[in-house]
Amino acid sequence: MTKKITLACAICSSRNYTTSKNVSTQASRMEVRKYCKTCGQHTLHRETK
Question: Which residues form the signal peptide (predicted)?
């Protein structure tokens, strides 16, 4: 089952991206390096609740 999740910047906490993930294969929270418009650089983005 896929679930829609929101990714937030680890530095400024702005919620920039939405994506989907398969809950049955990925139980842990997703962490991806993406570009943050607010910070102006590539930062770590984590899955939010």
Answer: none
Q: Which residues of 14-47 are buried (b: 16+ CB within 10 A; e: fewer)?
A: eebeeeeeeeeeeeeeeeeeeebeeeeeebebeb
> Which residue in 25, 26, 9, 29 sits closest to 17, CA to CA?
9
Q: Which amino acid is at 40?
A: G
- Please, which pLDDT band fits residue 32 given cuts at 50, 70 and 90? very high
| pTM of the complete model | 0.84
Length, in residues, of the chain: 49
